[in-house]
Design goal:
Helix content is 46%, strand content 8%. It is mainly α. Helix 17 packs antiparallel against helix 21 and helix 19 (466-478) packs across helix 21. Belongs to the class-I aminoacyl-tRNA synthetase family. Glutamate--tRNA ligase type 1 subfamily. Pfam families: Anticodon_2, tRNA-synt_1c. Residues 357-505 form the Aminoacyl-tRNA synthetase class I anticodon-binding domain.
């Protein structure tokens, strides 16, 4: 395999009109989507949208033991949550369906029959034991250990003998005896030599079609023009190209081989490819923590691509406008959870306060802080509180700790034990007593008046530093050591509730 210069613009489109561009995302609904899956979908979606083409969603559900209707629905719901829409596929339809492989078995059987009839494929009767013996012998001789073509030219007598033994054949593709060269949209021109490319299996002995068959057949029949996929699949690409060429010769599909772009690995800790079992690999974790879909997608786009050298934060509309597959870096990209969270935080700051408030409601509702549809009074309080926390939060789930104290009834309000142990001690008793006195006599319950009263009482009156003066008050009214700005929080909480919580906090002081 050799690498050469990157493709030109003509190589990218290959003579097509931009609107003819067709890409596919073909997940297997066996569980949660990973960040690697999502990045592939994102790049395919951005590529299609950039040229005004189409994205096809195709479901590779032939693994009956692992695929479930629930997993399929989760996949569809996840893509919708991300905002990655598809133009053809499940729940949308299209002219090239069906879009589930389990509904296309007759199609595959018909294509295999045509490949066999045209001599592009053949039956292989070799047993696994025979294959293993010949491979080991090849290794011992320092030769390529792939399939040696033993059944390529069987006579009728040899076939009959195998059949009489009760052997059930697999179907193999007859690979061409020449190098296979293609221009990868990410890596440039790549050549695979024929001695490294053995005839591979298309159909198992039980008649079940395999991925190396169904994937290219679906691409051909759905007229897919460009395929973006992971770097780990690169070794199988020349085999797929050979099948595309064979399909074209027997009149299956549009007679076109898609242009490939192999995306770099997403690496986790220890310079290892990020596994679906690694923390931070699954989409569900980000949904649960309250990442914005646009924030997560923005970060995943940076794993191999950038909109500009000096810019990391951008909208999906801006990505679509700027996306160029030739600018995808072929080097592995490292997943950085901290940067992912920072990018998400930047997108949270970009939201209009009203929209930010709308997005935190489901998290507050799940925690029992608010109903799914807040009352008018609750909504007004949330609207007033949002500007106090929007700049301080990295994920939407943090809203529970940051805003929950404003909505929880006083009878259900609790102080975090750790915060109480660390802050409600020492001078805290004097602070709480002085705070109650200062605020009880306050005629104007505004942020400015509250701040002036507490500063006069605690800093000037008790001679305390701000941290020691305001820490006990913060814990008393919010239940935590970290909260929105203190004086604004007191104003929003109101006089009666604030004084009630200050008095309650005094009961938590350690006995003298």
């Amino acid at each position: 395999m050799t690498d050469r210069p990157a493709p030109t613009d003509d190589d990218v489109l290959g003579g097509l009109e931009p609107s003819q561009v067709r890409l596919r995302f073909a997940p297997s609904p066996t569980g949660l989507l990973t960040v690697g899956n999502i990045r592939t979908a994102l790049f395919a979606w951005a590529f299609a949208r950039h040229y005004g083409g189409k994205l096809v969603l195709r479901i590779e559900d032939t693994d009956a033991a692992r695929n479930t209707p629930e997993a399929l629905q989760y996949t569809l719901d996840s893509l919708r949550w991300l905002g990655i829409g598809w133009d053809e596929g499940p729940e949308v339809g299209g002219d090239y369906g069906p879009y589930k492989q389990t509904e296309r078995m007759d199609i595959y059987a018909d294509v295999v029959a045509k490949l066999l009839q045209a001599g592009k494929a053949y039956h292989c009767y070799c047993s696994q034991e025979e294959l293993d013996q010949r491979r080991e012998a090849a290794r011992q001789a320092g030769q390529h250990s792939g399939y040696d073509g033993h059944c390529r030219t069987l006579t009728e007598e040899q076939v009959k003998a195998y059949v009489d033994e009760g052997r059930r054949p697999v179907v193999r593709l007859r690979m061409p005896d020449r190098p296979i060269t293609f221009t990868d949209l990410v890596r440039g021109e790549i050549t695979f030599l024929p001695e490294n490319l053995g005839d591979y299996v298309l159909v198992r002995a039980n008649g079940f079609p395999l991925y190396p068959l169904v994937n290219p057949v679906d691409d051909a029949l759905m007229e897919i023009t460009h395929v973006l996929r992971g770097e780990d699949l690169l070794p199988s690409t020349p085999r797929q190209i050979a099948l595309y060429e064979a399909l074209a010769e027997i009149g299956v599909g549009a007679g076109r081989t898609p242009r490939f772009g192999h995306l770099p690995f997403v690496m986790g800790e220890g310079n290892k490819k990020l596994s679906k079992r690694d923390p931070g690999a699954g989409l569900g974790e980000y949904m649960e923590r309250g990442f914005l879909p646009e924030g997560l997608l923005n970060y995943l786009a940076l794993l191999g691509w950038s909109i500009a050298e000096d810019r990391d934060v951008f909208t999906m509309a801006e990505m679509i406008e700027a996306f160029d597959i030739r600018k995808v870096n072929s080097n592995a990209a490292r997943f950085d959870p901290k940067k992912c969270e920072a990018i998400n935080a930047s997108h949270m700051r970009l939201l209009e306060p009203a929209e930010f408030g709308r997005r935190v409601v489901p998290f507050l509702a799940k925690a029992g802080v608010l109903p799914a549809e807040p009352t008018e009074e609750q909504q007004q309080l949330l609207t007033a509180a949002v500007p106090l926390v929007q700049e301080r939060m990295n994920t939407l789930s943090e809203s529970v700790d940051m805003l929950g104290f404003l909505f929880v009834p006083d009878e259900a309000f609790t102080v975090d034990p750790d915060a109480a142990a660390k802050v409600l001690s020492g001078d805290a008793g004097a602070v709480l007593e002085a705070s109650v006195k200062a605020l009880s006599d306050l005629s104007d319950w505004t942020t400015e008046a509250i701040e002036a009263a507490l500063r006069a009482s605690l800093i000037d009156g008790l001679g305390l530093k701000p941290k020691n003066a305001f820490g006990p008050v913060r814990v008393a009214i919010s239940g935590r050591r970290i909260s929105p700005p203190l004086f604004e929080s007191l104003e929003l909480l109101g006089r009666d509730r604030s004084l009630h919580r200050l008095e309650h906090a005094r009961t938590l002081l350690p006995a003298e």
